[in-house]
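TL;DR need structure tokens for one chain.
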Amino acid sequence: MFTSDRSKQRQYLKQAWEKYTKQEQLEPLELQLAKIVEKHPEYQNLINNLNSEYFPEQGKTNPFLHINLHLTLQDQLTMDQPKGIRGIHNKLLVKIKDEHEVEHLMMKHIAEMIFNAQKNKAAFDLDGYINALKEL
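>> reply
TL;DR here they are.
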């Protein structure tokens, strides 16, 4: 799964979901991904289309990117990296009381940080990311 090859990432996600729906044995990462897909019924059929393109300017959400943003945030929370993100998440949970909605709010800032780093050909602005999350 840890590859920059888009087709391999998509295939891994598709296979994890298929194994989950068939109640087959899953590796921990496969189970984590399948649980994310389970919360997104609107993506469950889309992940079978491995070669589809999704353009935000056309109003299309990329289900593969969306699921990977969930995965990224969950990993950040597990490790509390960047430092303090788990505390921010916990405060938002108390305020909003819906873990999935909280993840979506936080993921917008991950996507923005990635976009800005790519656009500016720069490192991730982790301080800016944490500060934006604190403002939520």
